[in-house]
Amino acid sequence: MNLISNEALLPFDFILFGGTGDLSIRKLIPSLYFRHSEKQLPEDGRIIATGRTAMDSIGFRQSLDVQVREHIGEQDFDQLTWDSFLQRIHYYPVDVTDPAGYQPLVDALAGREEHVRVFYLSVAPNLFTPIARGVHEAGLITEHSRVALEKPLGRDRQSAEEINDSLSAVFDEGQIYRIDHYLGKETVQNLLALRFGNAFFEPLWRSERISDIQITVAESLGVEGRGAFYDQTGALREMVQNHMLQLMVILAMEPPVSIDPDAVRDEKIKVLRALKPLKGIEAIENSVRGQYRAGAFSNGPVPGYLDNEDIPNDSTTETFVALRAEIASWRWEGVPFFLRTGKRMESKTTEIVINFKKVPHSIFPTADGFSTPNQLIIRLQPEESIRMRIYVKAWGDDIQLQPVYLNLDFNDVFQKRRMIAYERLLLDLIRGNQTLFMRRDEVAAAWAWIDPIRAAWEQYQYTPKNYTAGTWGPGAANALISKDGLRWNED
To answer: Residues 36, 136, 243, 361: which is the catalytic one?
Structure first.
């Protein structure tokens, strides 16, 4: 499903709150540059960055010339294209907490009320409400306006609802775009294409044929520079509530009637509401918390989580989570979904493993007795690929089965630059396509499943188990999945 087309975009003003921030420098501005280089932005399309730093547009462009260049590969950089792109960019210092601070934007946007107007909030969640109120009181919201929010959207369901209430007071739901950048990844969208564009998968995509599904989002990095923020968040809030549940619902959803945004999101919300609750002792029995301690990688030793100077010595924030989940539906009854995410793990890997059930009766003698079933492995990073594990006859006189992989490597098949996930999302945002963005009821349903897990951890004083940096997490995660006679895919 490629939502980027050659359809011409209308003139727009892209107002980037937090324009000097890390996300803007690393992802957002490079993504807009790439769309500009592909000539997919109209000539009358402006990028208006704001921040607290006092400087003018020339100074901001000069800073981008230094900071952003390192996030654009040399093979993808063209000086003339870059120079023309910089002419789109303007900068205004804005104090978003001061109602009078929006006057520079009022002046800059005057006379452009008929243009698409995007307010992108690349700021801390506590500023979502003040900015929504500020642009409203400044008279900047038009019928052609949209607002985009970065995750995390709240710390729990109550705080998420409060943010959504403040947004809904000044924007219509159709104007609100809640971003999960994972949904912009090529391989994630290929899940939809794989499932609903190929006839042979549908008969297999159900409990009668699938044994279990594993979703792993492993990071080799720690919390460098983000310790204070991360310690107030933790892996369950940062990764499971949004990224991992989104992957899960795309895997588990029923076929939508069309690719229309609400048709897709209607099916996703059904999955979230069908998740069997994990409350009380059941949450403890079906979850593992972990926190990394000092360890080593090939490039040398690394400190533990509590060794970071901006993290309290007695912190019980989890840097690792493993969960066993089930979906109460005809399609998925009895199929466990295992979710695992953590920092300072053995390697940076994001993959989905679908294990199929063994054949009912094997007529072939095999060395491993089909100990590893047929698998479909969808890898999102470090490289994007789809692999299918099947059994064939090994070469030789005897009939012995041997597992082999049918491998689709996106880099081999598609000889073009791999897009940043944000490129697609930003263009969809300007176009007004909400398919890859979360609806309010999705956010609420995700928090409704997550909150009882955190409550159980507190009730039973379930503190994180230690694991050594550079490993696959605490041993309890292996025990969790072994209860079903299974093991994590770590090949």
So the answer is: 243
